[in-house]
Amino acid sequence: MTARLHPFDAGATAEGRRLDEERRRVKRWSRWGPYLADRAWGAVREDYSRDATPWEYFPHDHARSRAYRWNEDGLAGLCDRHQHICFALALWNGRDPFLKERLFGLTNHEGNHGEDVKECYFYLDNTPTHSYMKCLYKYPQKAFPYAALVTENGRRGRDDPEFELFDTGIFDGDEYFDVQVEYAKADVDDILIRILVTNHGPDAAHLDVLPTIWFRNTWSWSPGSPKPQMRRRESAEPTVELDHPAYGRRWLRCDGAPTVLFTENETNRQRLFGSPNPTPYVKDAFHRVVVDRNSGAANPAHEGTKAAAWYAVDLAPGETTKIRLRFTDVTEDAPSAFADTFTTTFDTRIREADELYARLFPATLSADARNVARQAVAGLLWSKQFYHYVVQEWLDGDPGQPPPPAERLQGRNAKWTHVYNEDVLAVPDKWEYPWYAAWDLAFHAVALALVDADFAKDQLVLLLREWYMHPNGQLPAYEWALDDVNPPVHAWAAWRVYKIDQKRRGKGDRVFLERVFLKLLLNFTWWVNREDTQGLNVFEGGFLGLDNIGLFDRSQPLPSGVRLEQSDATSWMAMYALNMLAIAVELAKDDHAYEDVASKFWEHFVYIAHAMTGGAMPGREGHNLWDEEDGFFYDVLAFSNGQRLPLKMRSMVGLLPLLAVETIEPSMLKQLPGFARRLTGPI
Predict the structure, then answer these.
(1) In what order do the strands lie in the sheet with 239-244?
(2) Own/partner pairs for 666-673, CB < 8 Å, 24+ apart?
(3) % of residues, the chain, pLDDT over 70
């Protein structure tokens, strides 16, 4: 009987073939993808303030005029995996005070429930190699209610619901545009772009659409570094020619007869700081041309580091128009960029995506459930982001730029000078959380393993590499505080990804499993040495991702002589020990040296379980995180005088011990007699 091919196997689907080519590095299908952030303003890495206030230092109002130092953002965009070249949309409905170039939202202090994007957009489709991608943005025809969103949410308290975009009445009467953006790859470096604009309103409406391409500014921070260039190219279609040291020449070909604008991706110092601009052509030039009607803001020489194709679109009620572009490495003497193959390529990629997901999801799912599952995968794949943060350079500042305040050398992330992040990562959300978080990424990897196990494994390995993991073994939490403590779920995620991949391919990736296991030994040791301060197998560790359920902020230090013995931290460590035990047992099937390590983690688990349930080490009192009368686990405040105060709040903290479960099959124990004896013998 022939084994059924998995939909991501090379012989099963076209997308499986592309993934296989990517795996073997025959063709880099993932070179271009949705790696452009939805928000880069208000980020820690862009913050050079004295008081560590990124939201205030780089607000939304600055984003259109100020060049980013670390990475770019945009609307419905894409870029290469090193973010040398970016592409995204800009829109103007004729009423807004500025171009819509990025998603708007409230800062952590403006939102009554914290930071919150206030837009209406949907990630509709995507494939693992991003051979086909689709998203939808709903753009109001009335003036976007920026001020109303800030004012009303600022008036509301934590107990009030959030004031959303729909609550403003902006979509009443269906006065909005659907702007659907699709990407299809004809080849690795040949990307077809299709933009469909629909007028849903009852009246005729005008929309300015500016597909925009630009270079991430790398030259301003490193004097003497090569500066890329783009210029207008005379050809059958309006064309922007790009020349970048990393990629050579590329062309953005534009269907129809748009006006092509050029400027520089440089800060408008005059607008923001009242100082002279070194060039009259700056980042917000297209806003000044379209909104302010200042034609002199764009470079008349038709060259620069940022360009846009300006389409002026008039639509009757219910009418849809199509805009087509092609970003390609195909030389200009090739046939027309918009020949019949443009449409057939889209049709082919959509059909291939349909085939992929038809085979991936169980046949028993309803059509609606399949659509929900497919869009969920799309959201996961769209949430890949190029993330750039080199802590030492960020602390030191850049040549030719004002030096950062001296306070930062003793402030946020100052002890993480080894961190060199310049990778595509799975982030929690490209607007609200446009940075990796160690434990979020672990959960993302498990979900990603269902559609791209190689990417999932690479993500888990990446966080354990020496330019991420601290030399002491701690994993970086997130850019707001790299030294915060996240739940230790990396081993669990690695084990789950390994098992998912093993089921798919029929053979486990032992090299991956061993790589993560050896690095996680360092992380486990860090936990034992740093978060079990009394050496009693009861752990502390900060908020551990459960900051919304504590009686107080558990990330903040307690008064001298007081410590918080945490049910959740201790439970996570019990689970961690069992996860490492399971991995060690798996590795011991081929290398019996791992039997001893498996025994070690079994002992760790028993010690932790004993301590949590009131068991005492010789000569000491027990901890009593377990309350026999209540039948529940609680955190305990332990004082230097021996007093112990249980914090009797019933929450997830007391349920986490249920996670610490592992099953070992009897057949496995027969293969590992040394470990089996230790399992049943005295500890």
Answers:
(1) 121-126, 132-140, 176-187, 190-199, 320-328, 248-254, 239-244, 229-233, 303-304
(2) 668/585, 668/589, 671/588, 671/589, 672/585, 672/588, 672/589, 672/592, 672/595, 672/598
(3) 96
CA 354 from centre of chain: 25
Name residue 37's beta-bridge partners: 73
Which 3 state secondary structure label does DSSP give 453? helix
Cβ contact 530:471 at 8 Å: no
pLDDT band at 659 (very low <50, low <70, confident <90, very high): confident
Strand partners, 562: 639
d(CA 567, CA 633): 6
Cα separation, 216 vs 114, in Å, equals 29
Instruction: Please give the span between the terminal C-alpha atoms of the chain, in angstroms, as a whole number.
Output: 48
Overall average pLDDT of the 94-111 stretch = 97
Please report the pLDDT score of residue 1 as a whole number.
Answer: 35
pLDDT higher than 80, residue 549: no
**How many helices (H) and strands (E) would you count in the chain?**
18, 24
Q: Which residues pair with 185 in a beta bridge?
A: 191
Kindly give the pairing relationship between strand 306-315 and strand 384-390. unpaired
Each residue of 449-460: pLDDT tens digit? 999 999 999 999
Residue 6 CB-density burial (10 A; 0-12 exposed, 13-18 middle, 19+ buried): middle
Task: Please identify which residue in the block is written with the tokens 């429930």.
Answer: 113
Q: Cα–Cα distances in Å, from 4 out to 359, 448, 499, 507, 518?
A: 11, 21, 18, 15, 34
> What confidence tens digit (pLDDT) does each residue in 585-622 have?
999 999 988 999 999 999 999 989 888 887 655 555 55
